[in-house]
Design brief:
By secondary structure, the chain is of the alpha+beta class. The chain is built from three helices and four strands, in the order βαββααβ.
Length: 98
């Protein structure tokens, strides 16, 4: 698997809108999408960490290059105080949920 972890500084009061935007992105059903998780940080509730997983590097980059993804990003960016900090990489270990 391959994906990204992003640090997001959400505008005060915009977290619900951000969650709705992420749900809309998910409903697009991008090829190779596996899962996404949004964490609210204890030390600063306006800081969120977004983890997004794809089947492999190819499907991740195909999604990143999709004009629909760019439109989705621009909607999300309007809800943030600053540009996200992106950290892309390969998943080298995971623990099964069952």
């Amino acid at each position: 698997m391959y994906g990204t972890i992003a640090r997001l500084h959400v505008r005060p009061g915009a977290e619900t809108q951000l969650q709705e935007a992420l749900a809309a992105i998910r409903s697009r059903q991008a090829h190779g999408f596996v899962a996404s998780y949004l964490y609210r940080m204890d030390e600063d509730p306006d800081v969120l960490m977004l983890a997004v997983l794809f089947a492999d590097r190819e499907t991740y980059h195909r999604n990143a290059d999709d004009p629909a993804q760019d439109r989705d990003y621009r909607v999300m960016r309007e809800l943030l105080d600053s540009d996200p900090e992106w950290h892309d990489g390969e998943v080298v270990w995971s623990s099964p949920t069952s």
